[in-house]
Automatic annotation (TrEMBL):
UniProt keyword terms in alphabetical order: Signal
Domain of life, source organism: Eukaryota
Native species: Pseudovirgaria hyperparasitica
Leader sequence residues: 1-18
Stated name of the protein: Uncharacterized protein
Length: 299
């Protein structure tokens, strides 16, 4: 499934997008920041991605729905999830030129610059935290059909294959589902509609959360392998091409922190203390994306 076709079709169907910009990025930039410029679109992605990472309390969001954030522990259908070790250097799970290395992505200010006004990716412009966050802004910007690469919205400069980026993480279905839940919850907290959240979640699930999914083009000029869920519990893609995915030699998944426990403090940096509460996501797997979306809106 291509993000561009999916996002533009949904945006056009909504009937509320400006005539000259039918993207979800343009729609919500106009709704939240008034002027639909590339610079404002970049600000929108900063606000959204930073909230996905740090979370937000009920008092910090307009609709009163708290966002735990991906650094907080959670539970998906009875399975405890803790994504923090992938970010704080606890695991040698980052792919650096085909080698699994340990990288602390939270050592340049942690949550402090992400929750500042205006938001920032990090305290400096030359750190793993800065590179991770700015890559996320541009990658998700491409997903939402923002004016990525225009003056005011930097182009994506990371690896265009998410399968290669995440090849040493051994992410499970529950871990991927939790990440997608937090993206949806953050979007909801900014007033994104159920239909539009469903559009993005369906794209995230179909492209990243199915084992052996075929190559797809999201950024760059070439189709690349994108699946980041290659564990045995990940659903097999209907168009599976497992031969294209090399043996990753992935690290073992971290021991989950029980739901409700405090987040770990990253080595060498400020604690990314989450402003949202831990999340428990319960939905029928047979309900698919629709069940996931309903669970997100029930948070």
């Amino acid at each position: 499934m291509r993000f561009s076709t999916l996002a533009m079709a949904a945006a056009a169907a909504s009937g509320v997008v400006a005539q000259e910009d039918t993207s979800l990025c343009g729609k919500y930039t106009t709704a939240l920041l008034m002027n639909n410029t590339a610079e404002n679109q970049y600000m929108l992605l900063q606000l959204l991605v930073n909230r996905v990472v740090t979370g937000a309390t009920q008092e910090q969001v307009s609709n009163g729905s708290a966002v735990p954030g991906i650094l907080a522990p959670g539970n998906v259908n009875g399975t405890d999830v803790n994504l923090l070790p992938y970010f704080d250097g606890s695991l040698a799970s980052t792919n650096r030129n085909g080698e699994a290395v340990s990288v602390n992505f939270l050592a340049d200010g942690g949550a402090t610059p992400l929750t500042a006004s205006p938001p920032k990716p990090a305290n400096s412009t030359d750190s793993p935290q800065y590179y991770l966050l700015t890559h996320l802004y541009s990658f998700f910007g491409a997903l939402l059909q923002c004016q990525v690469g225009s003056d005011g919205f930097p182009a994506y400069e990371g690896n265009p294959s998410m399968a290669k980026v995440h090849m040493f993480m051994a992410l499970t279905n529950a871990e991927n589902t939790y990440f997608i839940q937090q993206v949806g919850a953050a979007a909801v907290s900014f007033g994104v509609t159920m239909d539009d959240v469903s559009t993005v979640a369906e794209a995230l699930v179909s492209t990243f959360n199915y084992r052996c999914s075929p190559a797809a083009k999201i950024v760059g000029d070439m189709e690349e392998l994108q699946s980041i869920c290659q564990a045995e519990d990940c659903p097999l893609s209907p168009n599976a091409n497992c031969d294209a995915y090399p043996n990753s030699g992935a690290v073992s998944s971290p021991t989950p922190t029980p739901s409700g426990s405090a987040a770990m403090t990253p080595t060498g940096g400020s604690s990314p203390t989450n402003t949202g509460a831990a999340s428990t996501l319960t939905y029928s797997a047979g309900a698919g994306v629709a069940g996931l979306i309903a669970a997100i809106f029930a948070l």
